[in-house]
């Protein structure tokens, strides 16, 4: 239930050397990187492993993720089934690996969608200003007046269950944060002399926005996006758990647990333990990674937040 | 001050209208078919005329503006309309299920402050000590654990190791306190610990920033006791970001009640909402979602007002 993005909402620093140069400088010494951000690197390595497993799912698993095998049902962990099997006799490890495909895809796509659209909207809102800005702010205020998960549930039901509905719904709940962060950076940048000089040499409206203002938001954008990934994973899992996300039999980390608790007198313990453990570890990895990215791009906060 | 509160309340009317419009668009305008859900796999066998009759009964075949106006009227009467599948009105549903959820939320808030604040303060005052590391370890851990999993694990452990299950059904505090507490403690603890992790982290970082300020040095220099310096001078300013955070966290808490009630099988309002979502009971969904949003807006108003009380520099006119 990490909604840490909501928390790390401080305005980011603006006047930075280019982000690309910064990344290059940081990447020069891998050893330095590991020494400075040990947890962030551990998180990144863990995420790399999880992403690799998800991509290579058919190669690294021995069972079918959706095939019902009633003879094998409700097994506890063994060498053949390291995480046991579920009520339908499907191997839980296999489903967790295949589930990672969906859960990770949903998280990455929804954050990309929400934060990116939000960032451009925020830049436009700040630069255009006036009534457009005012109406945008009012509209986003409405979206932020819903508890996030509840908004996601309403949107999923509205759009119709399925992968894209979930991506779109979670993306929309993340959108206002993107707007807010990009807008605050753009507001402080647009008054600077170099933007004025760009206008003076006749750069068009769009060019000023996209080439002169938007790049300044990149650091904040990266910090926000990485911080949102863990949140998106948890929202997707919660939707799946509640039975309003991606429908069975397609496995996701959330819906694997869904029926295991409600409506069952004595739950089969591996179904409860392992998917949740997977989510916790992945969210931890995302948070560590996100914190490192934040520290890297925002030296002011370095070490201040635990 | 009261003028400010009035103006803010007035200001939130368009926001509330916007919320009803978004809910309405999501539920009624977009595709989605409650009748098919109602009949499950036999939905394809319903005759078109029967389906039309059912939809008319549910009020789904009226023109959309009429349906929307009907909803606003339902809100106006204070009954909030009738559930599609159950006989009772949404008001009765709220009256029956609401108390459990309110109890869980209040207990969780109290717990989050009682646990989060001291942990954050101790962690900041003993920065980089063993205590600090332990506190930060648990903070980071509880930020990552999904509430529904922690909830389900508690249920599982109690069941498998101690063969214990909390009583089922709605038991209110004034009917049977002992049974009621057995129902609500689990969700409240899970949510309270999750929220206290955020509060502890914010308290720590905010206090660490404040104790480096000049006025704290002045307070120490003039010979105040350390306790007075921290409790009276530092904490008051450090609490501003924590209060801001509390508004956001309340949204997190409201979302949390939905999932955690499901995990613990507690028949509160959150579980009622999930049931409504699964059966596409539009009338219940739209009113419960509206209720959750109204509570969220109200709390954020309170948060803004409490600013002025804590920080005299902020003046509302």
Automatic annotation (TrEMBL), chain A:
Transmembrane segments: 37-63, 104-129, 149-173, 218-246, 266-290
Keyword Transmembrane among UniProt keywords: yes
Top-level taxon in the UniProt lineage: Bacteria
Domain (ABC transmembrane type-1) ranges: 100-290
InterPro entries per record: BP-dependent_transpt_permease (IPR050366), MetI-like (IPR000515), MetI-like_sf (IPR035906)
Keyword set, alphabetical order: Cell membrane, Membrane, Transmembrane, Transmembrane helix, Transport
Membrane topology designation: Multi-pass membrane protein
Subcellular location: Cell membrane
A cellular-component GO term for this protein: plasma membrane
Predominant localisation class: membrane
Keyword Hydrolase attached: no
Listed Gene3D superfamilies: MetI-like (1.10.3720.10)
Pfam family of the protein (one): BPD_transp_1
GO BP annotations listed: transmembrane transport
Family: Belongs to the binding-protein-dependent transport system permease family.
Protein name listed in UniProt: ABC transporter permease
Automatic annotation (TrEMBL), chain B:
PROSITE patterns in the cross-refs: ABC_TM1 (PS50928)
SUPFAM superfamilies to which the protein is assigned, alphabetical: MetI-like (SSF161098)
Keywords (A to Z) from UniProt: Cell membrane, Membrane, Transmembrane, Transmembrane helix, Transport
Domain (ABC transmembrane type-1): residue spans on this chain: 98-303
Subcellular location: Cell membrane
A GO molecular-function descriptor: dipeptide transmembrane transporter activity
An example Gene Ontology CC term for this record: plasma membrane
Keyword Cell membrane among record annotations: yes
Residue ranges of coiled coil: none
Transmembrane segments: 12-30, 104-125, 137-162, 182-200, 240-264, 284-310
Pfam families the UniProt entry points to: BPD_transp_1, BPD_transp_1_N
Keyword Methyltransferase: no
Membrane topology summary: Multi-pass membrane protein
InterPro entries: BPD_transp_1_N (IPR045621), MetI-like (IPR000515), MetI-like_sf (IPR035906)
Family of this protein: Belongs to the binding-protein-dependent transport system permease family.
Protein name according to UniProt: ABC transporter permease
Organism field: Tectimicrobiota bacterium
